[in-house]
Amino acid sequence: MGGKKRLTLKQMERASEKKDESSKKGGKSTGPAPERKAPGIMTPDIRSDKVIAEVKKMKAVTPYAVASRFNLRLSVARDMLDELAQRGIIEYVSGSKNLKIYKPHD
User: What CATH number should be reported for the domain holding residue 96?
Assistant: First the structure.
């Protein structure tokens, strides 16, 4: 049958010596873990003329395109596109549950 073979006495001694040496040198510190910060999400002002002009330049407006253009998360980009569609700046063309495609309103 398979499985791990037993170590010889000499191999066990060497392994324990290496373990002792590494613990004496310091190894990992058990101090407090560094604090994690939530990434700051700065949503561009939707009422800004610059944002509206950038969106109107795009042929097809998708959440991924907006997220990459304005350096946003996809969820924030989706919310932004929903609000722009409600305001009449862009209009819904096609899509599915996962992806919505918009075009600038003429």
Answer: 1.10.10.10
